[in-house]
């Protein structure tokens, strides 16, 4: 029997478990929806790419060939054009007329991969993002030169994702249409270099008085340092920071092998030198440059615009400017006889503001004497100096009236020692007691210090802060009665504060801008000032009567006009340091703050830097009062004299202090009480007549000081 070997029959291998069985089943059957989804994604991507290509191709970049916009216009209060804030932005120059060092400097600091990317540098974006995350804030930006060019020419400065994507799209279109050299040429001709200068030619002319081709390596590095933050790195504003930034550009050029180590060291050793004055023929500043500067500052600080946006053009800025008032101020400032003599090497500086007390609208403003520097230091708005005696009505007398004091209230005027603070009057004499009116007229120092102590320091501080006067944390002493502030004030702040009195106690915040409109007339920003009652109408009117007496009888006589005028003088002494102890008759600041029914204003005079060779030998009752009078006379020459308005509670047929009111009296119709008071005061004044006549010639006395107290008894007025 044959033995047969039976081969095993192969059997299907069973899944080891149910999970494996399920996986095999899934591999066999792919759901249809997965395929449809994949197809949908592919189609969507294709549509997106096609749309992006279409978008890029549809972008109009012809504007690169004609980049000049209409200038930004500043309109006056009547809606008429008052000034052009910018003329044509650019004055193009060919790339071969721009030195290689300038081109390399801008590439090194702004976009070192410029010749490698295609408009948007993904590597640069990631690098910037990483560095910003590591260092916090925005230490580095990711925009390429091409993106910056697109933003400057086609886009606004808003920081949104949509704008950033649009910027990138424009950059791709530009890169596909122009060569790298063409892009760099357009960039250098259109970028903003600060000081109102667009383009390399104007920048080279403004900073160095040269054509671009004449720029040195160090000068090129300085100009390349500016576009990132033109105001911050301006050599006219912060020379040290500008030098630091220039040297950084030089280092980046060396790191990129654009310059040798020897060239780097040579340029590094070159001093930073720029022109002291702008070349003639610059059309940017236009008319009313101080007012324009202040408008630009307000637009930036209050409404969030950038300088770049404001100077790029196509805007209208409607303002409170009154050309008649502004021109009156500029005419007065051109008259050197209205200012104290200056040192041979430095000019006495000044700033003044005139506002409408009923609206707060700034009608005119002058920020400096001499050559105007675009957005240079504005003494009318940016000054911080101690106000001296013009602070007394604000810090002491107006709050005291609110507490129940009257012009005839008797105030202490004798030896005073308040926790070591010993104020003295300018003549180092005391009168025992004086009326509040006498204290205001003659600007004695002891009575207001004593009175502030009586009504409470916080009472005075609260009142001046409601007027918009900034106080420092260290301002906690009775020296505030004499204007002894830690930081100080500006003419604009003092004009606003004094405007409360003719406006019967209502504060209308000072402002220059009414509204800003865009290219199509759309409103981009609009002022919404909120008036606030800070003083009773009766007490505001009483302060006006007192301050009229100051102008007619007291320290402010040189401001008297043929119309109702009220005001106060102020002078601050030289610092009590060894450098000034050998000097007699010197002052640091001289002020006048005052008003008519139509305008309120303030004037400051002094040196930017006070030292042993540069100080005033005058007082607020002299040149500042004279300048105030001249400005007002010119501004109001065609305006009939009107009366100060009275509060409703005092209207009995009279509409206010008449234009013919003299010496604080209403043409002989004063009450018996007022006549008796004036008779008594004349007796007191007779004893002081000799001293009063010599006031303008007498030296500013030095008084004792209370430690850090800045409110020295430093006022002749």
UniProtKB/TrEMBL annotation:
Record keyword Nuclease present: no
InterPro entries in the record: Beta-lactam/transpept-like (IPR012338), Glyco_trans_51 (IPR001264), Glycosyltr_51/Transpeptidase (IPR050396), Lysozyme-like_dom_sf (IPR023346), PBP_transglycosylase (IPR036950), PCN-bd_Tpept (IPR001460)
Example of a GO biological process term: proteolysis
Residue ranges occupied by any Penicillin-binding protein transpeptidase domain in the UniProt entry: 351-632
The organism's place on the tree of life at top rank: Bacteria
Gene Ontology molecular functions: penicillin binding; peptidoglycan glycosyltransferase activity; serine-type D-Ala-D-Ala carboxypeptidase activity
Cellular component terms per the entry's GO annotation: outer membrane-bounded periplasmic space
SUPFAM superfamilies for the chain: beta-lactamase/transpeptidase-like, Lysozyme-like
A Pfam family the protein falls into: Transpeptidase
Catalytically driven reaction(s): Preferential cleavage: (Ac)2-L-Lys-D-Ala-|-D-Ala. Also transpeptidation of peptidyl-alanyl moieties that are N-acyl substituents of D-alanine; [GlcNAc-(1->4)-Mur2Ac(oyl-L-Ala-gamma-D-Glu-L-Lys-D-Ala-D-Ala)](n)-di-trans,octa-cis-undecaprenyl diphosphate + beta-D-GlcNAc-(1->4)-Mur2Ac(oyl-L-Ala-gamma-D-Glu-L-Lys-D-Ala-D-Ala)-di-trans,octa-cis-undecaprenyl diphosphate = [GlcNAc-(1->4)-Mur2Ac(oyl-L-Ala-gamma-D-Glu-L-Lys-D-Ala-D-Ala)](n+1)-di-trans,octa-cis-undecaprenyl diphosphate + di-trans,octa-cis-undecaprenyl diphosphate + H(+)
Membrane-spanning segments: 33-56
Protein keywords: Carboxypeptidase, Cell membrane, Cell shape, Cell wall biogenesis/degradation, Glycosyltransferase, Hydrolase, Membrane, Multifunctional enzyme, Peptidoglycan synthesis, Protease, Transferase, Transmembrane, Transmembrane helix
Compositional bias (Basic and acidic residues): 663-717
Domain Glycosyl transferase family: 80-253
Region (Disordered): 1-26, 644-717
Family assignment from sequence similarity: In the C-terminal section; belongs to the transpeptidase family. In the N-terminal section; belongs to the glycosyltransferase 51 family.
Entry-linked PANTHER family: BINDING PROTEIN TRANSPEPTIDASE, PUTATIVE-RELATED (PTHR32282), PENICILLIN-BINDING PROTEIN 2A (PTHR32282:SF32)
Protein name per the record: PBP1A family penicillin-binding protein
């Amino acid at each position: 029997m044959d033995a047969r070997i039976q081969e095993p029959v192969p059997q299907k291998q069973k899944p080891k478990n149910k999970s494996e069985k399920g996986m095999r089943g899934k591999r066999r059957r792919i759901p249809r929806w997965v395929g449809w989804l994949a197809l949908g994604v592919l189609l969507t991507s294709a549509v997106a790419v096609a749309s992006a290509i279409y978008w890029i191709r549809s972008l109009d970049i012809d504007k690169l060939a004609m980049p000049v916009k209409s200038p930004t216009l500043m309109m006056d209060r009547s809606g008429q054009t008052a000034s052009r804030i910018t003329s044509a932005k650019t004055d193009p120059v060919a790339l071969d007329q721009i030195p290689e060092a300038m081109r390399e400097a801008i590439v090194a600091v702004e976009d070192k991969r410029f010749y490698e990317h295609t408009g948007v540098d993904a590597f640069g974006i990631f690098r910037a993002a990483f560095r910003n995350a590591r260092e916090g804030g925005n230490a580095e930006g990711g925009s390429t030169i091409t993106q910056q060019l697109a933003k400057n020419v086609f886009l606004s400065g808003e920081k949104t994702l949509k704008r950033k994507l649009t910027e990138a799209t424009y950059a791709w279109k530009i890169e596909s249409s122009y060569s790298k050299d063409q892009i760099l040429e357009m960039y250098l001709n259109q970028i903003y270099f600060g000081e109102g200068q667009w383009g390399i030619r104007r920048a080279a002319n403004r900073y160095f008085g040269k054509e671009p081709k004449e720029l040195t390596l160090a000068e090129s590095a300085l100009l390349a340092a500016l576009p990132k933050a033109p105001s911050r790195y301006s050599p006219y504003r912060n020379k040290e920071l500008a030098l630091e930034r220039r040297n950084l550009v030089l280092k980046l050029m060396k790191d990129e092998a654009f310059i040798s180590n020897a060239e780097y060291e040579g340029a590094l050793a070159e001093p930073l030198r720029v022109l002291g004055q702008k070349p003639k023929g610059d059309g940017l500043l236009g008319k009313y440059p101080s007012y324009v500067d202040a408008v630009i500052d307000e637009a930036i600080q209050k409404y969030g615009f950038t300088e770049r946006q404001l100077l790029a053009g196509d805007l209208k800025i409607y303002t409170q400017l009154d050309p008649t008032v502004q021109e009156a101020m500029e005419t007065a400032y051109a008259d050197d006889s209205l200012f104290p003599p200056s040192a041979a090497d430095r000019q006495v500086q000044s700033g003044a503001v005139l506002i409408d007390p009923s609206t707060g609208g700034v009608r005119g403003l002058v920020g400096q004497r001499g050559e105007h520097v675009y957005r240079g230091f504005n003494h009318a708005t940016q000054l911080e100096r101690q106000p001296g005696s013009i602070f007394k009505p604000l810090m002491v007398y107006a709050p005291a009236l609110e507490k129940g004091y009257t012009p005839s209230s008797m105030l202490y005027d004798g030896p005073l020692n308040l926790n070591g603070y010993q104020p003295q009057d300018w003549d180092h004499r005391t009168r025992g007691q004086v009326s509040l009116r006498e204290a205001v007229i003659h600007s004695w120092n002891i009575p207001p210090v004593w009175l502030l102590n009586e009504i409470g320091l916080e009472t005075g501080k609260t009142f001046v802060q409601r007027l918009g006067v900034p106080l420092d944390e260290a301002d906690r002493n009775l020296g505030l009665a004499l204007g002894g502030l830690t930081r100080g004030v500006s003419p604009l702040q003092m004009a606003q504060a004094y405007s409360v009195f003719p406006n019967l106690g209502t504060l209308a915040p000072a402002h220059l801008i009414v509204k800003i409109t865009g290219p199509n007339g759309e409103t981009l920003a609009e002022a919404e000032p909120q008036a606030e009652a800070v003083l009773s109408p009766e007490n505001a009117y009483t302060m006006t009567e007192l301050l009229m007496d100051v102008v007619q009888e007291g320290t402010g006589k040189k401001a008297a006009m043929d119309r109702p005028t009220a005001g106060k003088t102020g002078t601050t002494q030289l610092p009590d340091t060894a450098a000034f102890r050998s000097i007699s008759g010197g002052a640091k600041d001289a002020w006048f703050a005052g008003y008519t029914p139509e305008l309120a204003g303030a004037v400051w005079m002094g040196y930017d830097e006070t030292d042993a060779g540069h100080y005033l030998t005058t007082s607020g009752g002299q040149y500042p009062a004279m300048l105030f009078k001249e400005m007002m006379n010119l501004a109001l020459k065609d305006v009939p004299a009107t009366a100060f308005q009275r509060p409703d509670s005092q209207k009995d047929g009279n509409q206010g202090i008449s234009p013919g009111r003299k010496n604080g009296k209403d043409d002989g119709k004063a009450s018996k009480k007022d006549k008796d008071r004036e008779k008594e005061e004349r007796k007191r004044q007779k004893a002081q007549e000799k001293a009063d006549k010599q006031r303008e010639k007498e030296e500013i006395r030095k008084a004792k000081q209370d430690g850090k107290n800045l409110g020295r008894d430093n006022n002749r007025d």
